[in-house]
Design brief:
It comes from Mytilus galloprovincialis (Mediterranean mussel). This is Reverse transcriptase domain-containing protein. Among the domains are: about 80 residues, no CATH class; about 100 residues. Helices cover about 35% and strands about 10% of the residues. The protein is built from 19 helices and 23 strands. The protein has a four-stranded antiparallel sheet with strand order 15-16-12-17, with helices on one face.
């Protein structure tokens, strides 16, 4: 039966988003029965002009703005009927406009005085006074009931744990403030790769992940416990905020006061073998070596990674200026990454992740080392000092292990920073047959760049009853990789201009043989050592610490870079045995069951695709896997291992004993990469 517009129902001043969404995705001809404005007045009997008038009367909006602009529909009569039909349905669900509330207390219901004809007397002062008195009593009663209701809700809010509805209301609440973070453009990226160099969004970026910030309202902060977000008492009632600290943290024996802070004068110089050396003024510079000066790589001094000092690039800012560092990046080096204050900043506190339990010793050692090298500053004991503005949780990446700072809350306000990385696909254009290679790895990469002192309050942590803040870029901040990689491109680009072919992947560098047509070429081994000397000399004078244990200073024709062996003798990529073994374990664990989770199968598919550089046509052997993932992504159920999927998984067993390779010459030319069965 067709719905009829209820009396006094209107959408004036209401949101029309439900109507827009329904009309945009609906088909006018698919509606079986249209609603009616009146019982005996179907929409089919109205003309186009009458439909426009009725819609504007019902909603107060223009048909052209709603139907054409927002819904993207033509303004024909069928679409107009559909628009009025959906408007009637929404108006009936919203209901009639509100009326003046009155109590049912007989003592306050004073009837209006009536004249002899039964109508209310007009202009009678006594009648008017009685009506005003009744209205005042109604208003006083409503105020009294409102105060009682508010008090009861507030008491319930603090006495009972936050339920699902309350928690959802908090999570869905819009923020009241937003920071700004100026990250302007940078000219050292690929010339063909352009992207906007953004400032922070004026509000949180909810598309960056399934995590929303709680709204702080007049309290000292919020506490997150067992998945619930709870309010603390206002500052007027509670002066100190003391969070719940797990017993395993308190029993860890963490004592930051016993740490001796490292000074700049404590840094020693060592050679590439890690042996202590003395500084020398007679070593040729990178530019002199390019022009043909004699050099000895063993005389080159490095900063001792065992005495790493956070923010060391800042002490070498003059050298950065000499190589033409852009002003924006120079500001990061001199003043640190700046995060301006929130317009109305409020504290937030989050407990450390439960995954940290069992890694107490690792966390203690990591935090104490960070305090010593200056990447962390201890504020004080919990309850004895003011906490940082944001106290965000510590998490553990167990595979390394690596301590991470879970900054999803802060990252909501930060715009995405797209940038390009030099991957393994770039290797074939740098190496030739039987050419030599080497690799360099930075020590504690992100810690080379400090945060601005005014921004460190947003990067707080708590462990074992101690408040601390990060002084350098933390692992977990969305912009850290962008800042560090963009800064690292400056010396890489400078060395490329000197004739050193190299690739950069955040803190990993691949170095190839020196290329300079103005000088007579020596042996490949000597040209590689020359490239190493030039790049290392530039990095050291700019303040970089290199992880000497992970660096490969010995020229080789087969080098492991970004998890894959690059072999110039065979001109091929080769899978390490460790990768094969981890792939075999994952594959067999899937085949042992009758079903598999979508995340596990996605991880398996990702490994298959990553092998295409080393395994010819690897993409052809994951079609059924990708099909199963596509079907399962529509629901949360596990994927049943059906016959075709099982056969494809079993096919990958050939990799266990496979010794083949994929020729780099085929990868070098993208037009020869054909994948077909």
């Amino acid at each position: 039966m067709a719905q009829v517009l209820k009396p006094n129902c209107s959408l004036a001043g209401k949101s029309l988003i439900p109507i827009i969404l329904r009309v945009k995705n609906a088909d006018a001809e698919a509606v079986l029965e249209l609603s009616r404005l009146k019982k005996d007045e179907p929409l089919e009997s109205l003309t186009k002009v009458e439909l426009i008038a009725q819609f504007e009367k019902l909603t107060g909006e223009s048909v052209k703005d709603v139907l054409i602009v927002l819904c993207g529909k033509d303004d024909n009569i069928e679409n107009m009927r559909l628009l009025v039909h959906e408007s009637i349905l929404l108006a009936n669900s919203v209901g009639a406009r509100g009326q003046r509330l009155s109590t049912s207390n007989p003592s306050t219901d004073t009837p209006a005085a009536k004249g002899s004809d039964g109508k209310a007397a007009q202009g009678d002062p006594s009648t008017t006074n009685q009506q005003l008195q009744a209205m005042r009593q109604d208003l006083d009663e409503l105020k009294k009931n409102s105060k009682v209701l508010q008090t009861g809700q507030n008491l319930k809010k603090y006495e009972e744990p936050s339920g699902s509805k309350e928690r959802q209301d908090i999570l869905d609440a819009p923020p009241t403030s937003a920071p700004a973070f100026p990250f302007p453009g940078y000219g050292y990226q690929n010339p063909g790769f352009g992207f906007p160099y953004p400032n922070f969004y004026p509000g949180p970026n909810y598309n960056s992940g399934g995590f929303r910030p709680p709204r702080m309202q007049g309290g000292r902060g919020r506490r997150v416990s067992n998945g619930n977000i709870r309010d603390h008492e206002p500052l007027a009632k509670k002066e100190k905020f003391e969070p719940e600290i797990p017993d395993w943290e308190l029993k860890s024996g963490f004592d930051p006061l016993s740490v001796k802070l490292r000074k700049q004068s404590d840094i020693l110089l060592v050679n590439y073998k890690g042996e202590i050396t003395q500084p020398s003024d007679c070593l040729p510079s990178a530019e002199e070596v390019v022009n043909g000066s004699d050099y000895d790589f063993e005389d080159l001094s490095f900063l001792d990674p065992n005495f790493f000092k956070a923010g060391n690039l800042m002490y070498c800012s003059e050298q950065w200026e000499k190589i033409g560092c852009p002003g924006e990046i120079l500001d990061w080096i001199k003043q640190g990454g700046s995060l301006l204050r929130f317009k109305s900043s409020q504290p937030a506190y989050f407990q450390n992740s439960a995954s940290c339990k069992g890694f107490e010793k690792f966390l203690c050692d990591t935090l104490l080392e960070r305090i010593a090298n200056g990447s962390l500053t201890v504020i004080g004991r919990v309850g004895e000092c003011d906490p940082p503005l944001l106290v965000l949780p510590i998490t553990i990446e167990p595979s390394k292990p690596r301590m991470c700072h879970d900054e999803r809350y802060l990252n909501l306000w930060i715009k995405d920073f797209p940038f390009s990385l030099d991957t393994l696909k770039e290797v074939p254009r740098l190496i030739e047959k039987d050419s030599f290679m080497a690799s360099l790895d930075d020590k504690s990469g992100y810690d080379h760049i400090l945060l601005n002192p005014n921004s460190r309050q947003y990067f707080g942590i708590q462990f074992a009853g101690w408040y601390m803040v990060f002084n350098s870029l933390p692992f977990g901040f969305k912009a850290s990789a962008f800042i560090y990689h963009t800064t690292g491109l400056v010396p890489i680009s400078y060395c490329r201009s000197l004739g050193v072919p190299s690739l950069l992947y955040i803190d990993d560098r691949l170095v190839c043989e020196f290329k300079n047509t103005s000088l007579k070429k020596k042996s490949g081994h000597a040209e590689l050592v020359k490239s190493l000397y030039i790049l290392c000399q530039v990095l050291v004078r700019l303040g970089y610490f290199l992880n000497l244990e992970k660096c490969c200073f010995i020229p080789t024709r087969c080098l492991k870079f970004l998890g894959m062996f690059c072999d110039s003798a065979k001109l091929a990529f080769i899978l390490p045995e460790q990768k094969k073994e981890s792939f075999r374990i994952l594959r067999e664990s899937i085949l042992d069951g009758n079903d598999v989770g979508i995340k596990t199968l996605q991880r398996f598919a990702g490994k298959c695709i990553s092998f295409f550089l080393a395994v010819p046509s690897a993409r052809l052997f994951s079609r059924e896997i990708n099909r199963a993932i596509s079907l399962a992504s529509k629901n949360s159920k596990k994927i049943n291992i059906y016959k075709e999927l099982k056969e494809e998984l079993e096919y990958w067993r050939f990799l266990d004993n496979w010794k083949g390779t994929n020729c780099l010459l085929e990868i070098r030319n993208p037009f020869t990469m054909n994948f077909s069965n």
